[in-house]
Amino acid sequence: MKTTSYGPIAVTAAVGHERPQICVASRGRIQGSAIDKQNSKYDHMKTRLKLSLIPFTAVVFACAFSGVNATAADDSPVTIVEIFRRDHPELTDKEIVVKRIELKPGGTDVPHMHAGLITGYVESGTFEFQLKGEPLKTLKAGDIFFEPPGSHHLVARNPDALSKTVLIAFVVNPKGAPLSTPLK
Q1: 6 by DSSP, 3-state: which?
Q2: Gap between the Cα atoms of 124 and 105, Å rounded
């Protein structure tokens, strides 16, 4: 054990252990790993400052991560955020796009088609998925799906009334073409 004094505060640390154990004593009271401040006014001010920063931090993160490239309003059942876009390194007429798609509980997307090919990953939740000419599939977190170019995506929904579904879509799309076009 090694004890170091800092004015009225003594710090005792067990050395030679894999994980150091620290005990702080002030005015004869043991306070574990917390230092007993002599003036609680400063603790109160620090706590208020920390708590006042929480909403500010939340707003900054919300702006940074939802921002400009979200393609749905807050009340929409589906929110799509572009994570990545770049030209295809070998096919000059194609681009690579990665999207994060969130379906609210019970949310359904409209039937649509894709000009490019899509490989999708169910990050969380449950996803009901059906392409034209294929049976309805129910996918869960960790499952992968594929949509060939030009396929008609008839069903895209979250059957769970309580939890959201999150998908990650990797798309190889013709340059300039919309990623999705609603079916009429």
Answers
A1: strand
A2: 12
- pLDDT, one tens digit per residue, over 4-27 is 443 444 444 444 444 444 444 444
Position 153 in a domain: yes
Half-sphere exposure of 165 (CA within 13 A, CB side): 30
Summarize pLDDT for 52-107 with one digit per residue, the tens.
Answer: 444 433 433 333 333 334 444 467 899 999 999 999 999 999 999 999 999 999 99
Global pTM reads 0.60
Number of domains in the chain: 2
Q: Which domain holds residue 172?
A: 78-182
Q: Provide the CATH number for the domain around residue 171.
A: 2.60.120.10
DSSP H or E segment with residue 133 = none
Distance CA 96, CA 179 (A): 11
Q: Are the C-beta atoms of 13 and 2 separated by less than 8 Å?
A: yes
